[in-house]
């Protein structure tokens, strides 16, 4: 395949793609440059990290078959536009979990000990030990985890190792699950916010989680509590957060922002960056060498698996459950034109083939079985029509 690497990827991953026989094009693209690169090189597979992939880009990329996000989230990709054009979208979940969890813990410690402010004063030649020797400490405090996926569970585990108690909510978390993880179960994000001394968000960016941390959420938080976000900026109502910083003494550690640049260097335009109660990092949660190596290797695996088997690991835009109404099973000899004649009969019966797979058996005479998922009501004569085709061995159908 012709693979475009549009964001930085470890050299080991690039070499692995080339060793697998792919033509690798490396162009670290801005959003504006990506569209030109896709068409110029007739790209079939695209690997991105932070670069946005828009509908306009996809409409001009006629050869593109697969987009791999070298990371867990995929909100930078117009998945709907990709689906409309039959382009697979895959991600690399779980490969950067430790890195994000480590930064989360680092922000917690930094807020408690005011590490960034210590550094600024010391670099300015100011000795302010009296001002900074007043940290409360983290042991025995309550950490609230909103989202108990792999990263959330790692954060909880690390925090417990430091002596914190953990209360957690997640859409799929049950009281039994919480007990198994050694955390206290909460039935809503608001309940977590109201009981925790430190709140950390670890949910995916979806329509359901947009502004999950809103005015009601911050109103429920304890005065002087810490707020950590290392997931996506869209899950936080930044105006509500600013109000909480001013009115409730909330202090925040943020790695992500709603309007952050998608490029490596530039202006950061958010009112949060000037607030003394906020520690900001540059969306570096997944940016450790360990995480990047693991994520790059997973991106290679996705591309190679697709090339060799047409299966896309970690695909996020394939329907989990199709709308097919009947399963047609056709046993046949593996000869030229057999399936073409089968599908022609299906078409004439006004049935839509939604999914199809064909497996060939071993042996001197190659037989095969095609499993065809259909939408529509098959006519009674369909089985007879198919069995009348030369080299069709048997036909059956099941209502799904």
Write up what this structure looks like.
By secondary structure, this protein is an alpha/beta fold. The chain contains 15 helices and 16 strands. It starts with a strand and ends with a strand. The model has no long low-confidence stretch (mean pLDDT about 95).
List keywords for this structure.
single chain; 400 residues; 16 strands; 35% helix
Summarize the structure.
The chain has helices spanning 11-19, 31-40, 55-59, 79-84, 97-113, 115-123, 129-132, 150-161, 175-181, 189-195, 215-220, 238-247, 289-309, 338-348, 382-387, and strands at residues 2-5, 23-26, 45-48, 66-69, 88-90, 142-146, 165-169, 184-185, 198-201, 226-229, 251-254, 278-280, 326-333, 352-360, 367-375, 392-399. It is an alpha/beta fold. The chain has a seven-stranded parallel sheet, with helices on both faces.
């Amino acid at each position: 395949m012709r693979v475009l690497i549009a964001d930085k990827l470890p050299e080991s991953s690039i070499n692995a793609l080339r060793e697998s026989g792919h033509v690798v094009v490396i162009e670290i693209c801005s959003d504006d440059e990506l569209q030109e690169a896709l068409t110029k090189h007739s790209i079939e597979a695209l690997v991105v990290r932070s670069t946005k992939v828009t509908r306009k880009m996809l409409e001009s990329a006629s050869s593109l078959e697969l987009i791999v996000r070298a990371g867990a989230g995929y909100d930078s990709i117009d998945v709907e536009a990709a689906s409309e054009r039959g382009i697979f979208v895959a991600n690399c979940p779980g490969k950067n979990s430790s890195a994000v969890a480590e930064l989360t813990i680092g922000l917690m410690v930094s807020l408690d000990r005011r590490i960034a402010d210590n550094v600024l004063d010391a670099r300015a030649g100011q000795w302010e030990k009296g001002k900074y020797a007043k940290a409360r400490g983290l042991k025995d405090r309550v950490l609230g985890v909103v989202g108990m996926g792999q990263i959330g569970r790692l954060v909880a585990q690390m925090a417990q190792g430091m002596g914190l108690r953990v209360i957690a909510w997640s859409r799929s978390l049950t009281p039994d699950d919480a007990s198994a993880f050694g955390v206290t179960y909460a039935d809503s994000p608001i309940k977590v916010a109201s009981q925790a001394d430190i709140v950390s968000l670890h949910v995916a960016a979806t329509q359901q989680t947009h502004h999950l941390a809103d005015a009601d959420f911050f109103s429920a938080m304890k005065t002087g509590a810490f707020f950590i976000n290392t997931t996506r900026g869209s899950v936080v109502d930044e105006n509500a957060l600013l109000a909480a910083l001013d009115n409730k003494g909330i202090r925040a550690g943020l790695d992500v922002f709603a309007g952050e640049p998608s490029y490596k260097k530039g202006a950061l335009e958010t009112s949060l960056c000037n607030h003394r109660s906020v520690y900001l990092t540059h969306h570096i949660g997944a940016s450790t060498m360990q995480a990047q190596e693991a994520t790059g290797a997973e991106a290679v695996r996705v591309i190679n698996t697709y090339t060799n088997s047409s299966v896309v690991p970690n695909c996020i835009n394939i329907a989990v459950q199709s709308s097919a109404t009947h399963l047609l099973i056709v046993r046949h000899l593996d000869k030229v034109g057999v399936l073409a004649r089968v599908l022609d009969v299906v078409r004439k019966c006004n049935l839509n083939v939604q999914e199809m797979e064909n497996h060939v058996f071993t042996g001197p005479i190659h037989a095969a079985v095609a499993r065809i998922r259909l939408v529509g009501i098959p006519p009674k004569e369909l089985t007879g029509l198919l069995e009348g085709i030369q080299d069709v061995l048997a036909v059956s159908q099941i209502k799904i």
